[in-house]
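Bug report

Summary: structure tokens for Probable GTP-binding protein EngB differ between web form and batch submission.
Environment: batch mode, default settings.
Steps: 1) Submit the sequence below via batch. 2) Compare with the web form result.

Sequence submitted:
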Amino acid sequence: MELRDAEFKAAYGLLEQLPRPEKPEIVFAGRSNVGKSSLINKLTGRRALARVSSVPGKTQTVNFYSAKKGGVYLVDLPGYGYARVSRSEKQRWSKLINGYFSDPERDIALVLSLVDFRHPPTADDITMINFLIDCELPFVIVLTKADKLNKSEREARLEALKSELPEYDSLTLVTFSSLTGEGVEGLMGIIDEALCQE
């Protein structure tokens, strides 16, 4: 799969603005500041394709990136779970994300559900994972910020996840670090496999 020619296409803040499905979509979902933009940049080999911010809640739109050679869209969803957002803004995000996923014509090849490896999954993380399971959408859990943990901390977190994640035995987990590139090769393989099943 070739993603290095990916280019920013457009950002959509309202459900009514979302474009009609044209090609398979690889979706990036996760709480605010979990590292979605960093993952997109790493997978595409581009340092600043997706804007990286240290400020949670920065991505407030559904951002589409077009990988022409790969024939796919990379879709960056707004981060969830950020407390310092008005109720009306949260409702807008919810309508936007639910509307995106509920469109029966949309060709969602794979969802990358990002969870911060350093901490137990949040209630919002679990809600998202259960939603993906219930909707029978193909997804993989990406454990971000893996470079922040030493070997024993990693082992402890991986063991804890067995009881923290729903339907753990049927899940695919990939550890990822935007700093070292850990997990990129494995994720590219998973993306290739998902697109081959289209």
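Above is the batch result. After comparison, the two runs are identical; trailing whitespace caused the diff. Residues 26 and 102 are 15 Å apart (CA to CA). Helices lie at 36-44, 87-102, 123-134, 151-164, 184-196.
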